[in-house]
Design brief:
It is a peripheral membrane protein. It is found in: Cell membrane; Cytoplasm. The chain has twelve helices and ten strands. By secondary structure, the protein is of the alpha/beta class. It has two domains: 78 residues, no CATH class; 190 residues, P-loop containing nucleotide triphosphate hydrolases (Rossmann fold, 3-Layer(aba) Sandwich). The two termini are 30 Å apart.
């Protein structure tokens, strides 16, 4: 089996940079660099902020220092990185709009946990779409993982509660619960997600659990608006980006971290259950720099 890396996933982004640049240089004019970064879907204001203190001819080291600044939280020494809570069972609430790759991401997280020897249970909590319930059940069958589900239209909070209680009874170490991505209006969606989160908290006796937001990487920086809406509904713990291998908008990751101040936990790198990698900020920055600079 060939394991994909973040470098492979960003190939369309770095290829697009190479086409714009032509021959790589050790010094890049500031205006050319601006064009490259904007083309990679880094937000314009962020590009301006990155470049403002740099000289007219920019070398790799100067840009590297400037990029690393945006992976910091409020404190210079505090990186915006993902650390899962040390709790058992680890309950993960998966949030995101329909079409972002939410169900496939659930399967990937489940496969990863099972591959690590953990007992996993899934909750088909998107009860507003019959197809979503069936997709989770099909993945459960394929991976040999139990799925708690009900009929379309059933209360999703009840599914979340039943999934956690079933997981606790069966000794599950990881419980992954799907949620609805779209309801009749935003207020309904917000109320539903807040209710599910409260029910999870109650079922776990106030122990911590995770809220992952799944974003479609092909949407680039426009996914940030979507993320902000969900962040207003719930305290999101981390982001999972899907379909990044299908786009040249890899620079949007930098914009997401800068705008949202949330860590990227995982990157989806394909359609198979094993196509999920942990996000690594060093690999990400070095891949971008390798696409720009010679040597």
């Amino acid at each position: 089996m060939i394991f994909k890396t973040l470098r492979d996933t960003l190939k369309k982004t770095t290829d697009a940079i190479s086409q714009t640049l032509g021959i790589k240089q050790t010094l890049i004019p500031k205006d050319t660099l601006e064009e490259i970064l904007i083309q990679s879907d880094i937000d314009y204001d962020l590009v301006e902020e990155i470049l403002q203190s740099l000289p007219n001819e920019v070398d790799r080291e100067s840009l590297e220092v400037a990029l690393y600044r945006f992976f910091r939280a409020e404190s210079y020494y505090e990186k915006i990185t993902y650390t899962p809570p040390q709790t058992s069972p680890l309950v993960r609430l998966i949030i995101g709009v329909n079409g972002a790759g939410k169900t496939t991401t659930i399967a990937k997280l489940a496969y990863k946990a099972k591959s690590e020897g953990k007992k996993v249970l899934l909750g088909a909590g998107d009860t507003f779409r019959a197809a979503a319930i069936e997709q989770v059940k099909l993945w459960g069958e394929k991976l040999g993982i139990e799925v708690i589900s009900s009929q379309m239209g059933h209360d999703p909070s009840a599914i979340a509660f039943d999934s956690i209680k079933a997981g606790l009874a069966r000794g599950a170490e990881e419980i992954i619960i799907d949620t609805a991505g779209r309801l009749h209006n935003q207020t309904n969606l917000k109320n539903e997600l807040v209710k599910i989160a409260k029910v999870c908290q109650k079922a776990l006796d106030d122990k911590p659990f995770e809220k992952f937001l799944v974003l479609d990487g092909t949407q680039g920086s426009s996914a940030i608006t979507q993320a902000k809406i969900f962040s207003q509904m719930l305290d999101i713990d981390a982001i999972i980006i899907t379909k990044l291998d299908s786009t040249s908008k890899g620079g949007a990751i930098l914009s997401m971290i800068y705008e949202l101040k949330l860590p990227i936990a995982y990157i989806g790198v394909g359609e198979k259950e094993g196509d999920l990698i942990a996000f690594n900020q060093d690999e990400y920055i070095q891949t971008l720099l390798d696409g720009i600079y010679n040597g």
